[in-house]
Write a structure and sequence with these properties.
It is built from twelve helices and ten strands. It has about 350 residues and is of the alpha/beta class. The strands form two sheets. It has a six-stranded mixed beta sheet with strand order 6-7-8-3-9-10, with helices on both faces. A four-stranded antiparallel beta sheet has the order 2-1-4-5. The protein binds adenosine-5'-triphosphate, iron/sulfur cluster (SF4) and magnesium ion. GO terms for molecular function: ATP binding; ATP hydrolysis activity.
Length: about 350
């Protein structure tokens, strides 16, 4: 990894779970993010993958300061930004921008494209002098592959892919260094997903951006990510380079997710068994003791209910070296998932 631009350590976001309307009594908490650690390198793309409800969007919102963490730290270029407020927070926010999942609902239908893309200049007037904003917006439209002549059109006059380009242009308006893209292509037709991914890829090189790219499917992030983190129930359970995660996954959850991804190469497909996970994802209000994946894990043993596995390179794999030696939160992490099932 290159020099880190973002460092996340011990990050938690628990939402209070209340009962009653008048006297809101706290009866528990939704552990949306429950101990997340990772770093994002400068110019790097880190993919974050996991099933619905595992806390991906909450991580995204914490990074762009739309939410405050319950506990933990986010550092931007070494500076702790978690407790910033007022002007200092605003200054940092400029550098970390978000692209949202659904270009159909995230763009105000009553605003013109020009106003949408230029909106960040209203919030950060210091970023561009008033007289220069239209010109900048036109340039941004051009950069994301839209016709600058369409600056006065409304979102409904564009296709889904074009609307996501509008969202990306808005994300770029303040010339941020980090883009947090929360499932930026999930709502789009498969045929345009690749175009938007390619656009993000090109913009990254042109503007030296660092990306946190969120998806619920390992296949989408594969082409764009340098590293991938797999989330389960509020935590990252495995993280590593592209080759490590796709070639030598060691956590049973990642192995299960990958076994469901279609493989175009028949040789690679051979010998790979499809792992069907049984049971539902537990509720984030009631996280299992020990390893949170144990209620669905085919490898689970007694130790898994007692001890929380930490996200680190597992001891037996450390000496092996190679692609298997990367961080995995499993007491029995291994690469031979096909042979050790009961
Ligand atoms: N404001 C909130 N108040 C209470 N619970 C919340 C709040 N926001 C999110 N949650 C809960 O936190 C958990 C994580 O939600 P989050 O939106 O981060 O998941 P996600 O991984 O982005 O899911 P998806 O793939 O569906 O977008 C879910 O159980 C969700 O219901
Ligand atoms: S720690 Fe145990 S339950 Fe958790 S993933 Fe590893 S084997 Fe499965
Ligand atoms: Mg989400």
């Amino acid at each position: 990894m290159t020099e880190p631009i973002l460092q996340v350590s011990g990050l938690y976001k628990h939402y209070p779970l209340t009962r009653g309307v008048l006297f809101k009594k706290r009866v528990g908490s939704v552990k949306a993010v429950d101990g997340v650690d990772f770093a994002l390198g400068k110019g790097e793309t880190l993919g974050i993958v996991g099933e619905s409800g595992c806390g991906k969007s909450t991580v995204a919102k914490l990074l762009v300061s739309l939410e405050r963490p319950t506990r933990g730290r986010i550092r931007y270029k070494g500076e702790d930004i978690t407790r910033l407020s007022g002007r200092a927070l605003k200054a940092v926010r400029r550098n970390i921008q978000m692209v949202f999942q659904d270009p159909y609902t995230s763009l105000n239908p009553r605003m013109t494209v020009g106003d949408i893309v230029g909106e960040p200049y209203e919030i950060h007037p210091e970023a561009a002098p008033k007289g220069d904003r239209r010109r900048r917006v036109r340039e941004l439209l051009d950069v994301v592959g839209l016709n600058p002549e369409h600056i006065n059109r409304y979102p409904h006059q564009f296709s889904g892919g074009q609307r996501q380009r509008i969202g990306i242009a808005r994300g770029l308006a303040l010339r941020p260094e980090v883009i947090v893209a929360d499932e930026p292509v999930s709502a789009l037709d498969v045929s345009v997903q690749a175009q938007v991914v390619n656009l993000l890829d090109r913009l990254q090189r042109e503007f030296e951006l660092s990306y946190l790219f969120i998806a619920h499917d390992l296949s989408i992030v594969r082409h764009i990510s340098d590293r991938v983190g797999v989330m389960y129930l509020g935590r990252i359970v495995e993280i590593g380079s592209d080759e490590q995660i796709y070639g030598r996954p060691t956590h049973p959850y990642t192995q299960a997710l990958l076994s469901a991804v279609p493989v175009p190469d028949p040789e690679a497909r051979e010998g790979r068994e499809r792992i069907i996970l049984t049971g539902d994802v537990p509720s984030p209000t009631d996280v299992p003791s020990g390893c949170r994946f144990r209620t669905r894990c085919w490898k689970a043993r007694e130790r898994c209910a007692q001890e929380v596995p930490v996200l680190a390179v597992p001891e037996p794999l450390r000496d092996l070296g190679g692609a298997a030696a990367h961080a995995s939160a499993c007491h029995f992490a291994g690469v031979d998932h096909g042979n050790d099932r009961p």
